[in-house]
Fold this sequence. Notes:
Chain A has helices spanning about 1-15, 25-35, 40-50, 55-65, 105-120, 125-140, 145-155, 160-175, 180-190, 195-205, 215-265, 275-295, 305-325, 335-355, 385-405, 405-415, 420-425, 430-450, 460-475, 480-500, 505-520, and strands at about 70, 75-80, 85, 90-95, 100, 205-210, 210, 370-375, 380. With about 525 residues, chain A is mainly alpha-helical. In chain A, the strands form three sheets. In chain A, strands 4-3-2-1-5 form a five-stranded antiparallel β-sheet. In chain A, strands 6-7 form a two-stranded antiparallel sheet. In chain A, α11 runs parallel beside α15 (about 385-405), α11 packs antiparallel against α18 and α12 (about 275-295) runs parallel beside α14. Chain B contains eleven helices and 15 strands. In chain B, the strands form three sheets. Chain B has a seven-stranded mixed β-sheet, sandwiched between helices. In chain B, strands 2-1-3-4-5 form a five-stranded parallel β-sheet, with helices on both faces. Chain B has a three-stranded antiparallel β-sheet with strand order 11-12-13, with helices on one face. In chain B, α2 (about 45-65) packs parallel to α10 (about 320-340), α3 runs parallel beside α4 (about 110-120) and α10 crosses α11 (about 345-355).
Amino acid sequence: MLLKKYALALSLASLLACALPAWALPADLVLAVAAGESDERIAAVAKLVASGDSGVEAYFQSLLDGEVQVAGGKRVLIVKDRHAVDAATGEKVEPLPENLDDALVNNRLRGTLEGARSALKLSSPDRAARLTAVKALEDGAREEMLPLIGAALARETDPQIRQSLTLVQAGLQLKSADAAVRLAAVKALAQSDNPNTKMLLLALLEKKGDVYAEPDAAVRAEAQDTLKAVQSQLSSAERFSQIFTGISLGSILLLAALGLAITYGLMGVINMAHGELIMVGAYGTYLVQNLFRAQAPALFDWYLLAAVPVAFFASAIVGMALERSVIRYLYGRPLETLLATWGISLILIQTVRTLFGAQNVQVENPVWMSGGVEIIANVLLPWNRVVIIGFALAVLLLVWVLLARTRLGLFVRAVTQNRGMASCVGVPTARVDTLAFGLGSGIAGLAGCALSQIGNVGPDLGQTYIVDSFMVVVLGGVGQLAGTVYAALGLGMANKFLEGWSGAVLAKIAILAFIIIFIQKRPQGLFALKGRMADA
Amino acid sequence: MERRSFVKSIAAGAVVTAASLVPGSYALAADTIKVGILHSLSGTMAISETVLKDVTLMAIDAINAKGGVLGKKLEPVVVDPASNWPLFAEKARQLLSQDKVAVVFGCWTSVSRKSVLPVFEELNGLLFYPVQYEGEELSKNVFYTGAAPNQQAIPAVEYLLSKEGGGAKRFVLLGTDYVYPRTTNKILRAFLHSKGIQDKDIDEKYTPFGHADYQTIVADIKKFSAGGKTAVVSTINGDSNVPFYKELGNAGLKATDVPVVAFSVGEEELRGVDTKPLVGHLAAWNYFMSLKNPANDEWKKEWAAYAKAKKLPGADKPLTNDPMEAAWIGIHMWKQAVEKAKSTDVDKVIAAMAGQTFKAPSGITSKMDEKNHHLHKSVFIGEVKADGQFNVVWKTPGPVKAQPWSPFIPENKGKKDEPVKK
C-alpha cells in the first residue's frame, strides 16, 4: 500500500502535465504555503507535513522547482509547459488563468521545504532514498521534524541510517527543555563528523553577559569534550582536502608544463607561444562542443572524449607549422627564437580574437563532470578535478612511453643529446625535430582541453599559464621529465598551503620569490642532467 | 632657468585651457556630436563591459532615429582599453583631446575610473559612470549612474542579518584585490561593527584579477561556516566569477547553508555558468531583468531586437542587467540635459543635469540628485533561479538617495554632499 502511494507520488512528479491523479490536500494549507508572510508559510509547511498526505512531497517538489503559481491570490496551480493542475485537488485547469503570480521561495523557505521533503522521504521503502534523506537532514534539520524523525528511528532497521538518524535527533534535542535529554544528546553527538554539529555545540557554549546559553554546567562540560572530538574529526578532513587541492593544482601545472618540458626542456626552444598552443586546444574543445550541440545533442555529454584528439591534433598541426616555417631556422639562437615566438603568440591571440571575438567563450562541463564525490565524511572531491588529475596522469604516462619506449622517442633523445652524431648514423634530424615539436604542442593542446573544464576560455588564456609553465620547467630542471613532475606537484602543494595561510595574493608573490632565490642557488633546477653530453 | 620654466608653465596652461575650451565649441561647429565609449572589449573585464558598449550604441541609434540631439546626429567613437588600467587614461585623453568628444560613457572597475579621473578633471571632460561602486568620490566631471554603497551593499548586508535573509552571524568578505572591494569591505566592516558583529566573525579575503582556482577559498568558507551561521559577501569582479561559482556548485555549498550575495554578478556574468547548483545565492542590484513592469518589457524587447539585428554574441538569449540599465539612463539623461542647456558645453550640461528625471526600466522614475551627481535608486535583492534569472525577494519601498561619502567611514564626517571646487 505504502509502496503504491509512493509510486503514485513519483509518477506525479514526472508526469504532472498529463496524469490526472486524484489526491486531496487541504486547500487552505496549500494556499498558506504558497503565499503570505514567511513565518506563516513555514508554520503551514509543518502542518502539511503532519497531515501525512501522499501528495505533499510532490507539492513541495513543485514549489522547490518553481512551478507553483497562485491565481488571483486564491487558487494554487502547478504550471508546467503551460499546462496547469490545481495543487490541492489535482484537477486539470484549462485554459490557463490570466492573473498568475509566482509562488516565491526564498532561502529560508527553501531550507524548510527541503528539510520537510527529506523528513517525508524517511518513510520511503527504498534504502538509498532514505540514506540521501537522512544525509540531507544532517545538514539542516528543523525542530518541527522531531516527531517525524523519532517515528522514523523507531521503525528503521538499517544500522547506517539508524546512526545518522540518532545524530540528527540528538542535534534537535539540544534545544529540549529537559537537561537529561540534552546531556544524552551532547554525548551522542561525539560520533558526529558534520560541521553543523560544531555550530550547534558552539551555540550551546555561547555566553551572553554572565549567562550561558546552556544553563546546566554538566551539559556544558560534556559539550566541551564533544566539541574537541568533533573538531579533531573535522581538522583531519580539512588536511585531507588541502592535500587534494594541492595535487589538483599540481596536475594542472603539470599538464600546462609537460608540452613545454619537451619543446623547451628537450629541444631547447624557448617557445613563448606555448600558452597560445594551450589556447588553441581549448578553442578546439569549444568547437567540438558546439558541433555536438548542433549535430548530436543526445551525445552532448560525451563531447569531451571527441575533443581530446581534436585538441591534440589542432595544436600539434599549429606547432608543426610553426616549427617548419619559423623555428627551424633559429635553432641555437635562443634570443631570436624568444622574440619570434613571442611575436607568433601575439599573432595567434589576435587571430583568435578576430575569429571568435574578444570575449570569453563558454565551454560547458558535461554532466558527469559536475558535482563531486564524498570519499570520507566532509571531504567532497569535485569530479572535474578528479578527472583532470586522472587525465594528467594518463598524459604523463603516454609521454613517458613515447619518449622511453618507442623508436621516435629514441630518435628525439638522440637528436637532442647530439645532433651531429645522430645525423651521422642516419637519423632524419629535421623530421624528428618537427615531430617532437608537434608532440610538445599537441600536449599543450591536451592541457587546453582540460583547462577549458575549470577556467575561462578566452584569447588571453595562454598568457595566464605561460609564466607558470616556464616556472615549473625551470624549477624542475631543463631536460628532465621527472623534474617537471616533481616541480609541478611541489609548486601546487606549496601554493595551496601558502594560500591557506596567507591568502591568494601573497601566496603567489611568495612562490615567485622562492623560485628566484632557488634558481640563484641552483641554476640547473631540481634535477640536472649528468654526463658529458649535458652541455652539448 | 627660472624664465624657461615660467614659459613652459604658460605654454602648458595655454594648452590646457585650449583643450578644455575646444570640445564644446568643436562639437557645435560640426554636423554631428561625437560621444566617446570607453569600455574594455578584451581582457578579464570584457565579460562585463562589452554589453555596456552595445547598449550605449543601441541608445545612440535610438536617439538618432528620433532626430538626434539639438538637430544633430550622435556619432559614437568606440575605443578598447583592454582591461588595462593605464590604457584607460591614455584612451580617455585621446577621446577628449584628439576626437574632441562631448561626453564619454565608460569604465566598470573603480581602478579604471580612478585612472581616468585626473584626465577628465584636467581637460574638463564629462564622464558617465554606469556601475555600482564604493563611493568616497565626488567629482564635478563625473555623473555616477550606478549605486553608491548605501544603495546596494548596506541594504544587502542588512537583509542577510535579518531573519528573512537567514540571520547570518558570521561574514566572509571576499573580493578581487583592488580599490572597490577593499573600500566596500571597509565600509561593511564598520557597518557590521555597528550591528554588534565582532572582528573574529568577519573574514576578509582577496584574490588577484583573473584568479581561476577557488578551491582553497571555497574550502575556507566551508570551514569558517562551521563556527556559526555564515554569509558570504562577494565583490569578485570580471571573469573570475565563473570559476568561483563553478567551484561553489561543485563543492556542494548550498545557498540554504551559506548564502553568497554578490555585488558585481548579474545576468550577464552567470551566462556561462550552470546555475542549477547555485539556486538561492543572491545578488543586490537596482535593476533585474525579471522585474515586471511595462518600461522594462519594452526595453527588453528593444534590446532583443537590437542584439538580433546586430548579430551580437549571445543574441539567441538576450540578457539585460543593472549596469546596462544605468548606462541607458545615463545617456538619455545626458541628452535631456543637453537639450535643456541647448549646448554640449560641459559646464552648461553639468548644471542642466541637476534634477533630471527619466523613466527607468526598473519601474521607477529615476532622478539625478540636484547636488551630488548620483541617481536616486530603488534597491532590489534577488535570488538566483535555475534558469540564471533572479527572483526579487526584497526591495526598498521607494527610491533611495545616494550617500557617496559613507557615514560608516569616520574620516567622512563633515564632507559636503556635492562636488567641491579645488
